[in-house]
Amino acid sequence: MGAFVISRRFNDEYKFTFTSRKGKVIFTSLSYELRFECEEDIEKFKSSIDLARFLKFKGSGGKYFFKLMLGEVHFATSRKYSTELLLQKGIREIVTYASKSEILDFSSNESIFEDEVVEEEEMD
C-alpha cells in the first residue's frame, strides 16, 4: 500500500508526496504554508478520489507526466515517466491505494534515528 509523506521544501514550506508500495514517488503536491493544510488536503483527496482527473502530458524531453486535478484545482504533479504505460501504472496505483494509504509526517527537523546513533557511538 502507498503512503502520503509530509515534508518540508528548502524554503520551509510544506509539501506531500504520494509514494508507491515500493517507495517510489508518484506525485508531489503544491506548497503549503502550514502543515495542517497538507493533512486537510490529503484527507480531502482520499475521500474524493473518484472526482480526481489526470491530465496527461509529454514533455519536450520525451518523458510523460500528469497533473492531478481535484475539481478544477491543480492539486499535484507527477514524477516523469519514460513510457506511457508506466505513467498509467502510476495512475492505477493512486486510484487503487490512495484512499487507504497512511500519512507519514517527516516535516520536523528532528532526527528520528538520533538515539540509535548515540548508542552506536557509545559502543565503540
UniProtKB/TrEMBL annotation:
SUPFAM superfamilies: YegP-like (SSF160113). It comes from the Bacteria. InterPro entries: YegP-like_sf (IPR036913). This is DUF1508 domain-containing protein. It comes from Flavobacterium resistens.
